[in-house]
Structure formats: C-alpha cells, structure tokens
Design a protein that fits this description.
globular; 23% strand; homodimer; 7-stranded mixed beta sheet
Chain lengths: 426, 426
C-alpha cells in the first residue's frame, strides 16, 4: 500500500517535555498512515514493506504551528513598529479586508500555502478572515497541499472597522453556520475550527451563539488571550463581570473543558487564568517572536510547562515573520533566557528538549495522537538533510547536536522529504 | 579601469542614525574604489564608465560585523545552555585550543571564510586565537576572499586553561610582536588588530606591555566589556583599583582616545562607563543575539545611540549563530522592544533606520569612511535580489518596506552581487 512503508535514518522524537528519544540508523514503520514505532532492527513482519533509506539524514516528527494568520502572510516582516491594538488597526485590518475580493485571496493564499508546504511544518491551526468564500478557497488549497490543518473563518461583530465587521451577532452566526455546513466533512485533511478573533471584537451575544454552534457541530475553538497590557485592560472594561480575561471566554463556555481550545499568547496571564487553563485542558500557543515584534513581552512558558499545561508553538505570522516552527523553537529558548535574566530567576530557561517537544508533540496533541513516533500515532515526519552548505562544520556532531543546529540554522533547503499521515508530500 | 564603474538600481543608505536616503532607479558611481556619490541622472563626466544595471535590485552599503570569533564558527548553534564564563570553559576554550594544529585551522578557517564571503558583510573585526600560525593562515584566507578585515591574535596569560594560555606576559608579548612584524603591511585588505581577550585573561603587566605595542605599531584594539554580571564582579575583584570594568582598560591606556577601540557587548555598563566611552570615542559592538543566547541580558543601545556614542553591530559568532549582519539588525530591534517593555519605557525601541545605520555606517566608521555612499567613501556595496521565492508577497512594496523585509527574511540566496573597495567579489 502507498501509505505503508519503512523509513531508515537517524530518528529523533520527544518522549516527554524533558526527554528526547534518539535512534541512530533506526527503522520507522508506517502502516496505513499510522506509526508502528521505531526499531533498532526491522522486525521480520515488516520486511516486505517498501524501504526508503534516508541514510544519514535526520527523521523528525512533522512540526505543528498552533497559531498562524494566513491572510497576514503577505505583510510578514513589515511595519512592526506598533503595539498590538494599533498594529491591528493600521496594518492588519486593512490587509484582511482585501480578502473579500476572491481574486486577491486566490493569489495571496496560493503563496501562503506553497510556502507552508515547503516548511518543516505538517500541521497548523489557521486564522483566515471573516469572509466565507476566501476561507473556503484557502481550505481547498490546503487540502490540495496534503498538509493537515484546522482553519477558522473569523468572527468579529464589534470594535472593528466598518469594512471588516460583521453587522451584528446574527449575521456573524449565519455566515459562520453557512461556512460550517459547506466545509464540515468535505475534506480529508482540512477541518473548520471556531474562531472568534478575540473578546474585544466579539459581543457577548455573539460569544453565546458561538457556543451553541460549538455544541451543535462539536467544534474545536481558537482565539487570543492576554497578549498585551492595553488589550487586557480593554477586556476588563468590556467584560466587567469577568474575573480575568480568560474568564470572559469561560463565561461563554468557550475555554476548554468540553470545547477543545487553543489560546494564543498568554504573556500576561494571572495565576487564576493559568490554573483554569490547566484544569480545562486549554492549549497555550506560545508565540515568542510575535510577542517580541509587537513589544508584548515574554510568556513565562517554562513555568507553565512545569505545571503540566498543554503547550505548543505558534509562528503567529504576521506578528512573527517566519513560518518554520524550528525558528519558533529557537525564539522560544532565546526569549526564555531573557525572562530568566531580566524578570524571574526561578523561571528556568527552556532546553532544546522543551522547545522541540512543544513544536512537535506539545502542539501535535491538539490534533490527537500526533507529533511522536510511538505506535498508534499518525505518521507525520520531516526528513532533514543537514549535510548542505549552510550547515558546514569541522566537528563530528552527535544526533542531539545536529538537532540543535537544525533548530537554529535550518531553512527550507534542508528539508529533504515530508510525510503527512503517511503520504509523502515533499 | 576595473575599479571604476557605475551601478544602476534602487539605492539606499543611511544619512544618519535616524534617516535613510533612498534613490529609486539611481546611479551610484565608483571611481578607483571610492564612491563619487548617488545620482538621479548620470552626470555626463561618468558616461564613459562601464554601467552595470542591477535593475530592480536593491543596492546597499556592505555590512560591517564589528565583533566575531572566527574559530568559534565551527560550533555555532551548539551548546548554548550556559552563561558566559562556563560557556567559555566548557565549549569555547577546548575548541580554540585545536587551532594550534594548523591542519585543523586550515579546514575550519576555510569554511568560515567561504561563508563570510557569501554573507552580506563586507567588513569584519575578527578574533582569532592565541596561535600565530593559525592566525596568519586566517589572514591569508581573508585576503584572498576580497573582504576587508581586521584580525586579532588573541592575548591570554591568566585564568585560562593550561592548554590555551600564554605562559607569562613576556611570552604573550613576544608572540604578538612576532605576529605583528609578519603581518603589518603584508596585505592589501587585511590588518592586524590588538586583541586582549578580556580583563580576566590578561594580567596587568600584559595590558601595560600591550599598550607599548599599541603605540609602537599605532594599532587599533578590540576586546569585551560588561557582558555578564558574574564577569563584571570578577573584574572588580581582579582590578580592585578600577572604578568600573572599562576603567581597567582605561588605566592601561587601552580604552579609546589615541587607541581606536571596539568594546563588545556593554550590556551592563554603568553610566560612568558609557560617559567615558563617549568621551574617548570607543566603539560599542552591540551583539544582541549573543547576549540573548548566553543569557547575558539586553544592552540599552537606543539610549547610547541618542547620546551620540559610536555603535556598530556584531554577530559575535559563536555566542550568536548567524553571520549575516541583517540578522543582527532584526535581533537588535527585537531585543530593544523587550527592553522597552520589560525594563525601561524611556528607552525607545530601535527603528529600522537605527538598526540599518548601526549595521552599515555605524560599524563601518571603525574602518574610516565606510558604510555610506557619500562621495569619498570606500566603495563597499551589496546588491540584493528580493524577487526570489523566499520574499514573495502580493503587496506592492516601496523601497523602505523592501529593506525591512530583507532585514527580517533574507539569506545568502538573496545576495546578487557584492563589491568591496570597488572590486566585485560575488
């Protein structure tokens, strides 16, 4: 079968947030798109499967981007001299409004999807815009790419410029329900996800009605939380009855529990918010580069990891500029070192193991059994050739050292092959 | 003549730390390796010069790396889980000791020089090791590359492992003088620079004798300053008579004034140190990525820039992992935003203009009239092709926006041509 084969190479994945498992010259078995595990010696029962020898290359789980805005890819690495709320108003909303024009959306989303396909990421949770047609087009492109993604038509019914605002809660819900009815179950690898932009742009009534949709269609949900001090202050004014920002989502029933939820950022989350996220199994999408570029701050993510919260990494393009979750890993380590030095010496810097875990198994868990090579996991793998020009050294490196250099130095040239759910897409 | 020609393209350079000059479809004239300036229309007197049309590409001044360790390039992006002093002991010193072996040095320095040549940098101030032969070999390679560099044989006569320590001040001085006599005036583009590693590894007597060498040969000088709190504490113990770290250099006469000096880092410099640097015209090599990777902190560089200090950027490989000074520019902006948010809201974040200035004219000034296209400046230019895959967007960008994206997104694939002192080397 096409989706059953054996990969040979230097295999590395996370056992847990603190431990890598490394098998040199090992065998990784894929059967019907699922992993059968890693083997030092290929078991006899798999000897009839096609063997693809990746030789000295590294075979890693595909990376998961837990938070990215597809329509913002066009202006990545531009105009980052503003804080969040001004940046949304000045740069983001005008660009997102263009996606009402399907021709523009086709062009821009094609570039985005092509580049995502070439990245080391195999999964992503994606914000689109408020526009149904453009969002459906993006989903079609992503489906064709072979990547596995969750894509959200965004909800915004207040505090948004007229050109990018759904007239009222009813309009927003009607559009969203129409979009859901046209996309749920329509793709093999592409799923809708409920996507209220964030509390400031979603009225209480909209949130209440979104909860009904969430129940009706049994949907996961993604949004933003506690990114910037001004945003947090605004939310406390908009929702005087909420004890903290996350409580505003929680009061609508959209904060984990029976609603599988990702909250991006959590830079300034108070302790009660962190505790509730842990209790409700809310995933944190840690977006270190974006939090730096928009002057938001540094999320104390090593502390949350120690507390057992579910954490993955997000590129947050276009708050962040790079798609590769390898870059998010090194950014996360770097930010954690500054946090330790400048803010709190009890928050120990993230290790390579921590960062690699978050970018693979940590974020992958939002998709189910994803991000490891243990038996029963969906088979997403990225094969890295680090023998190329941009990696040259005189040193003999062990596998962990090679992984470290990949995290800091690799780009799309180093990606030799990519498998998603057992299908080779690169 | 070979070194006289005209470049046509979109030309951009810094007028001052806060202002870019941008000439679209302009003409940049090089005569005998020096700039004759930028022109909207090519003056008649240059009409007989060879014209190279770089079309829509950007033509920028070559970048200057004010601080980099050539022997550390081999272990870039490795083992960055330690602070400065432990990192030196565990990772750096054992690797630098290998350069006693000239075969190893030849291999490693060849990789370093090849990669530096492919980078957007045209100038660099480089630390080698304590070894004369390897350092001379590095200088020969750099000379062959066409880059313009200052290279330092390092001095270390105390607090260093036996395998990487010059026996006493006399040995260190004798070796250094021998190396100087063999390299001064021997190259067209490669110059020796006095390089006491830092106060902890250089005895008072060594520093005193280095000052004699500095005067005798009229040498510039480079070292490290106020990088890490433990280092600073150690220096205060080693030099109880110095009022602050920089004063220890100053007491030896090696802190600017008649000795053209670069001090790398200055993360924790007290006000008196900053004031003395300004007074003495000491250059700061700001190394944001290294200061992050080694958990040193963030240098308040926008404040120093406002005070009129001379500041350039350093990759500080292998504290930093990337050679490109474009990366140092974006790292500097990012670090300054976190400093503003987390430490001091009166220290305004660096702008694109600030960062580009530091990476071109700011650091270039250490080499003389370098880093701008004004008439009389040495002609270093890098031509960037941002029409490639890794830059794609649906937006129509102006030149400043294209520059911003180059700073955040470019890699060696975007370098279309490189001129140093009027010679095309790429």
């Amino acid at each position: 079968m096409n989706n059953s084969f054996v990969l040979k190479g230097n295999i590395c994945h996370s056992k847990n947030p603190n431990t890598l498992e490394i098998i040199e010259n090992g065998f990784l078995v894929c059967e019907d798109g699922f992993s059968k595990g890693i083997f030092f010696k290929l078991p006899e029962i798999y000897s009839n499967l096609r063997l693809i020898d990746h030789k000295q290359n590294l075979i890693l789980p595909g990376l998961t981007d837990l938070h990215i805005h597809a329509p913002q890819y066009s202006f990545r690495a531009l105009s980052m001299d503003l804080e969040l709320l001004d940046w949304l108003e000045t740069n983001t909303f005008p660009e997102e409004a263009k996606y009402q024009n399907i021709d523009y959306a086709e062009k821009a989303y094609s570039i985005f999807t092509d580049d995502l396909k070439k990245s080391p990421n195999t999964r992503a949770c994606i914000f689109a815009t408020i526009h149904n047609e453009a969002t459906k087009y993006l989903m079609k492109l992503l489906e064709d790419s072979g990547l596995v993604t969750m894509v959200g038509k965004v909800n915004m019914d207040r505090n948004s410029p007229e050109y990018l605002c759904e007239k009222n809660p009813e309009t927003s819900i009607n559009h969203t329900e129409k979009w859901l009815s046209e996309t749920i179950g329509k793709f093999k690898n592409t799923y809708p996800i409920l996507t209220p932009r964030f509390i400031p742009t979603c009225s209480d009534e909209l949130m209440k009605n979104l909860k009904d949709l969430q129940i009706k269609f049994d949907l996961p949900m993604q949004s933003h939380l506690s990114e910037n001090p001004s945003e947090i202050k605004w939310v406390s004014e908009l929702c005087p009855k909420s004890a903290f920002y996350g409580d505003a989502y929680n009061q609508a029933g959209l904060f984990g529990g029976d609603c599988k939820t990702i909250m991006a950022h959590c830079v300034w989350s108070p302790e009660e918010e962190i505790d509730l996220m842990r209790k409700n199994g809310v995933f944190i999408a840690h977006c270190p580069q974006s939090n730096t570029n928009l002057s938001s701050g540094i999320a104390p993510v090593s502390k949350s990891l120690d507390k057992g919260l579910k954490i993955g990494l997000g590129s947050d393009v276009a708050g962040g500029s790079q798609l590769s979750v390898f870059r998010a890993m090194s950014d996360a380590i770097q930010a954690s070192k500054l946090y330790w030095r400048l803010i709190d010496e009890s928050a120990k810097p993230l290790t390579i193991e921590n960062a690699f875990y978050m970018g693979t198994a940590g974020g992958g868990e939002f998709f189910g059994k994803v991000g490891k090579f243990d038996e029963g996991y969906e088979f997403d793998a990225v094969v890295i050739d680090d023998s190329l020009e941009n990696m040259r050294t005189t040193l003999d490196l062990n596998i962990k050292q090679r992984l470290e250099r990949i995290i800091y130095l690799s780009d799309d040239r180093n990606i030799n092959a990519k498998y998603v759910r057992g299908a080779r897409i690169l």
